[in-house]
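Board notes, transcribed. Complex of a protein with adenosine-5'-triphosphate.
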Amino acid sequence: MVKQTIQIFARIRPTKKTTSVYSIDDDEEKAGSTLEFVVPRDLADGFVNNKKESYRFRFQKVFDQGAKQDDIFETIAKPVADSVLAGYNGTIFAYGQTGSGKTFTITGGAERYSDRGIIPRTLSYIYQHFSQDSGNVYSAHISYLEIYNEDGYDLLDPRHEASRLEDLPKVTIMEDENQNIHLKNLSIQQSANEEEALNLLFLGDTNRMIAETPMNQASTRSHCIFTIHVCSREPGSSTLRRSKLHLVDLAGSERVGKTGVGGQLLTEAKYINLSLHFLEQVIIALSEKNRSHIPYRNSMMTSVLRDSLGGNCMTTMIATVSVDKRNVDESISTCRFAQRVALIKNEALLNEELDPALLIIRLKREIQSLKEELAMVTGEQREDQLTEEEIHNLEEQVRKFVEDPDPEVTLDLGPDMRKIHHSFSLLKGMVRDKLSGGGGDGEPPTPSDVPSKPGSPQPEEVKKLRDILQQRDNEISVLVNMLKKEKKKAQDAAAQLAFFTNGQPQSQNSLQSSTAMPAESRMSQDKEAVPCDSGTSHALHRRQGPELSMGRQEAFEIFRRDREDSVTIDDNKALLKQRFAEAKALGEQVNDARSRVNELKLQLERRRRQTAAQGLAEGIAEPVEPDPVEERLCEQIEEEKKSYKSTFGRLKALKTEIEHLQLLLERSKVKLQRDFQEWWSQESTRLQKQEGTAAGQSPASTNQLLESSPSHVTLTREPSLSGTVQELPVRRERVSSAPSARDLRNFVPNPPAVRGESASRDRPSSQAGQQSQLRVLATAGPSSSIPLTGDKRTDADILAFVRARQNLLSRTGSAQQ
Ligand SMILES: Nc1ncnc2c1ncn2[C@@H]1O[C@H](COP(=O)(O)OP(=O)(O)OP(=O)(O)O)[C@@H](O)[C@H]1O
């Protein structure tokens, strides 16, 4: 058992804004750091400070703004991963206010490979350990739980692709009589390697992202628990070690009062505050001595993390802190929370258990042996014959026993009298054979020795023939092995070539199947699929949406170009292309090195044969001097092997990076589509409202809108930042004329806002020289447009309806006249 208090670390998020006064003092002797905030006694920035000026908090280590993701992994996550690999449970959780960098620390940034967070790095580390530790057999399973408004959801549930969060089956907690927690409806997926595990992480993250709506930015207001279940066993042992590693990204810890939200957001904030409040209660209860009742059951999060808090687990907390001046109160409250957490003592146990299947096999064997022993002691005879396999095994055993020069060696036959009898008769046969001269070569006779009969070949001849036979057998098995190896190499080479020229190997889950298309062709899919209006854009595999109206496609192109992260997407694409070229070159180098090794081996083989033949001809059994040619060949082989190994290592690392970049790109695309979808529907609603307000009518009244639809619309470009106004050709077509793609183009809503900033959504993009934003401006009449949907077919239907209606109206008009 390992007794340990929860380890606490602090990480300060980089900022360009004015920061509060803070300092970090690293105390090497006591292996800790102190984070100090100095808050002047004034009312600046709303923080009423009438208490003290300096707030000092002690952590295992404080990471300042410049800390890199690999430092965080090495110092915080690696020791926890090591203890998980050794069979202890581990938890790392990030706590801090919204935007302080919890997700960045736990999962990583969505843009650069170097921004990988604790989860992908830990997965990499764990699978590397699996492949390097030949003394144990490992397996890993993954689960990914999201807790939103006190309800649990399985982020790896395939139904996510077609549902909103609320429509999914809820994960529920069940407790057994031993007070162990079980989570119903939470899938636990096996992942055989790092690639599969990363795919699951990305699948969960993408599901998390696409389930969000502007009103429900669940990523900020939900808790997420990514769990790696590790199982290990020494080969042949029936003892299993099972451990869990929870990597937890908690919801933002800020208080409701400050954010001043209402409606749905208020409900969410209350739930967050409540669950964090229950977390705090559990922590306070745990830090109090002699407290018998710990209120774990109050919330789902504390129930799930029960072991991590005061239980069988090695737990680490990362307090993420924003040092922006306006956040100083939240930062201080985060640090205070951490100080309380640091008082909690956990008792981690080595999670060993017996594998029931192996235990049964072992017990069966033991029963059999005991039965045999009993039969021998009681003199009871077994009637049944030895099986063919048993006889064969006995012959092998006896042969090995006889051939072994060690006088101490024993023949372990167990208590079965039938086996003992049979072994004795085998031995008798050998001795008789030896006595009759069958084994007079000094070699011990074997069970298969044929006793010599009159007229049969002389023993020397038999021996010679047997030697030749043995030699041939050896040659055949060498050849068969060579053939097998060559076949495998050819298969490997073909697979590698296919990977680096065509694409990925076969994959298993849905995300993999989406990423399994040829990588280069994936990159060449420069045009991201525009989401369709009807239905959702949830499915990850929906790469190419249905046919779109021109306006929508055009709007999407502008939206994409003007996004803040479009540069990163392009950068990543360029980087991916570069990495592919590198991987291809490395793949070729690996193949070349392997061919060279094979060629050198052949040369060496030829040389050895030549030397042996020469030795035979000259009557020299063993050459006295080492052959310099042979030595050089051996050195060359070693060098080539080294170069092969190092190039292969680089290729493997590059492959991981490529896969990660592909998944980042994939996620960016899904996000782009989702953001566009959101923006599009927001703009449509806004336009409708404008129309309604301008006409003094309810925007919901389509009839009224259609009645007041103008017969002329003008398409202009907004002034660019340089001040020029570009007039596009003025269209003077009646709406009642047949709808064309250009008709639809006129209904492109406002241009995109910068990424993720809802406040800036209505601002024109600030990127100079990119003001090609299309806007519908009315030239006449109070209302200028029909609220089209952007879906070609639906829009055509609407326009056809307008046409029919106008025809009808004009006919009625002329009839009345
Ligand atoms: N150490 C860092 N280095 C660079 N960028 C960072 C760092 N920490 C956070 N960021 C960036 O700050 C933004 C907010 O971070 P993040 O989403 O991780 O915050 P959070 O605490 O998880 O917020 P929420 O509670 O809303 O989920 C992101 O754009 C992220 O990339």
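The first strand starts at residue 2 and ends at 5. The chain has four domains: 2-134+215-354, 356-455, 499-678, 694-816.
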